[in-house]
Every structure is written in C-alpha cells, then in structure tokens.
Amino acid sequence: MDDHTIRALTLSRRRMLAGGLGALLAPALDPRQAQAQPVFADYPFQLGLAAGDPAPDGFVIWTRLAPDPLAVGYGMPARPVPVSWEVAEDEAFTRIAAGGETVARPELAHAVHVEVAGLSPARTYHYRFMAGAERSLAGRARTTPAAGASLARVRFGVVGCQHYEQGFYTAHRRLAEEDELDFVFCYGDYIYEGRSARVGNSAAGPQANQRQHVGQETYSLDDYRRRYAQYKMDPDLQASHAAAAWFVTWDDHEIDNNWAADLDQDGTDPAIFRLRQQSAMQAYYEHMPLRRSAFPAGPAMRLYRRADYGTLLRLNLLDTRQYRTEHPCGGRWGACNELERAQAEMLGAAQEQFLFDSLSSSPARWNLLAQQVMMMDLDRDPGPGYMVNPDSWGGYRTPRARLLRHIRDRRVANPVVLTGDEHQNYAGELHLDGRNPEPRAIATEFVATSITSGGDGSDQSPRMAQVQAANPQLKFNNSQRGYMLCDVTAERFETAFRVMDRVSAPGGAVSTRAKLVVPNGEAVVVPA
Asked: Strand, coil or helix: what is 494?
C-alpha cells in the first residue's frame, strides 16, 4: 500500500476513534445555521474538480465534498451542504462570467454537477468552488464553437485504462502540460473493480504493484465510491481534469470485467448483477462531469450523445457495453460460428439509429466515433489459424458490417474511429472483411494505449510484430503506456502517439513514438 493511502487510512481511524463522523463538522444547535456555514475538520475538496460535456454556451463543472475520502461517511454529515461556484474569464477571477450556489446532497455522496450556461462560444474559462470558508483549486475549460462556425483547428487528447495498482499517473500530468487542448476524450476503464493485489500481471510477466487498492472487489455503492475516491485523490489525475473539459464514457471495469448488458463473466443471475450495475452506475455519475441527461435510472443510464466543433468535427460518443448481446464463442479468443450471428447487437437498436442519423446528417468535415473496443478486423493469430477478440467488434460481425455499410453507402465524410481497451497503440484501416480487403478502406481507426494498465510495456512484442505482418490493414502497433494527441484541420487528421518511458516509478518522461495522418477524403493511414 502506498504512503498516501496509509496516511489517509490512519487519519480516518484516528478520527473515528476520536469521536465519530459527527465530529468532522463543527457542532451547531441550529440545523439551518450548520447548513449555511459548514466548518470542515479537513480540506473538503480532496478529490479535485472537473469540467465536462462542453457546449457553445457552457459546460458541466463537478466536485465532491470529501474531507476524509476513504472513511465510512467520507467526513461529511448526512445532510445537504451548500456549495458556491464561480466561472471567470481570467485566471485571477477578476472578471466573473457566471456564478451561483448549488447543494451537495448526501444521496449523491455530496457530489455536485453544475450545468453552466450563458457563456460565449469558443472561449476558455476558469472555474472553482467554495464551501464554508474553504475554496477549491481552479480548473480550466473551453466552450465549443457556435453551431455552424468555421474553424481552422481542433486539438484534443484521448485517455483511458488507468489501473491504479499497475503504475503511476504521470501520463496524466504530461497531458496537463500539453499546449491547451479543446477537450479530452476518456474512453473508459477509469477505475478497476478488483481487490487489492501486491503482484499484478504485465506483458513482461508478474510484477510488484507499487500501490494497492483499498478494500476487496467492488460490489456495493460504498465500495465503488471508495474506489473512485482513491483514484481521484491522485494529484496527476486531478491536474489532467483541471487542464481541460472531458467527454467521458465507460468500458467494462467501471462495473465488472467484460460485462455485456445484464450479463457478467461469472454467470451471475442477471437480476443480482443488475443490483451491482445500479450501484456502479450511481457511483460513476457521482464522480464524472456529466449532464443531468445521464442521470442513472436503476441499472441504466444513457451515455451516447454527440458534440459539434463547428463544421470541422462531429464527435459521436458511444456505449458499447450496455446494449450489446452476449459474447460469442463463450467469451474465448478464437473463432466460432457465433461470430456471424444475425441477431447480434453491439450498440442496440436505439443507439445504432442515433448514430446512423448523426452520421447521415452531419455537416462536419470529420466524423468521429468515440468508443471503447476495437473495430479493426484483425486476425490475432499470425499463423495459419484465425483468432478474434470476442469482446471487440470482431465478435459482433453483423452489426459491424451494418455500420460500415452505412458509412460507405451514405458517403459519410472522413469517418475516424477512436478506441481504447487494448492497452496498446494501434492505427489502421477498416474493411468489411479484413481477410479480404476491398481496394479502398471504409474508415480509419486510432486505438489509444493505457495510462497504466499492463505496466511499463515495451515498444512492440515479437508476437505483435507477427500479427501486424499478417494484417496489412494494421499500420502501427506499440505497447508502451501514454495517450494520444489528435490535431485536426480541414486538410488532415493527425494523431501523435505520446508514450511514457516508465510508469512503474514516478516522474516518467513522455515522447512522441509516432505521428500518423489521415488526409482529407482518403481512408488511409500514412506517416506524418
């Protein structure tokens, strides 16, 4: 267990022994007075702040009051607490553009989601929160351009797969240090649900984990809340959130590994698993800068949506977990007749129609599908056999073909798929059948590696070099940790794969492993 976690747990135990959770706020005879003037025994903004889902007139700003984040009750009373907020045009907060007061409610773990409106388009703002005499640090977020606006450039980052135990979040710090970004897309695996482990698996074999999860595997709402709190206490992750507004969606580990609809990988009764989903989804909403439209309803919440950056870029955010059918082939890597199931679904009917309508009606030069699992049709067996990852679009060939045919037949402009999940960097081209590619690809795909999951990694394993040689549509592969930087103009979509020299120790250095480009009007991936 790392020193930060040990100190936090020790402090929690001391406070509980000293007088219980009620002592964490100054006593007050008048409940209204206590609510109006809370006094915290420790700094209440220990989980940082975040902005998300930017629009032309504003964005969501988020924080959660937690003076003792890992303790039972996290240092807060079981009553509402007022929180003030400010949005300014300058870092010094001398020109306030918006402000107000909201309520941090115990039903949502004292998290707040303020949907700021009335701001100017395509402008950077600064925001902060206040509770009692306490003030948060400041964050930065940029609104999107006005509808139909013409703009020269959009720059954004892509991150995900940040297993707390398998490395330090220096990549987030390096992302925060990049020149100002329009937004960050997080494709998922924000937390990992497993119990504490001192040894973890990596591409190089077993390795000692430098820090450990607090507690066992997450099942209850309190379990998930504590897991998010542990992750969000990391200062590098807080810096990444404070540097730019995020668009977030989930993958599997926010609930359970490789879940699909109401099925988990252990054969749990779906009714029981839905209880776990309900807890996980509430905790996800509580800790992400999401709009009210994503508010969970039992074991369901809507995460698919879109955002436009003028006529340059349309961002379609997708959910490939909640509506898919059961994994084929028993969830095992390989090949089976179930890959061609006619009734298979990846997005579900409503989300698929939403995406088709969005792509068909898009005025944008570039149309992005921001999602979780690889769409590229790769044969994972470099030998004479055939192997697919059944958790990817390769295991759902019917809906995959339906989507690609829609893109091709409707002549969707410059479709680019953004993906994570694989813990490796990939870039390549999409065909209906990767084993029999057409003369012209239908779309392109960039897959971002993990922030930490899998440990330090390496440039490319010998086996992946063989897989790349066997799949000519795969143009690049690398298995170091890091993130992607995407730089979009009317003429080209450029992706820089930013990789870390190490995540097994703090202070890692970042470098650009490769820059690859999709030219306007061409579904090809070429060196920059």
From this structure: strand
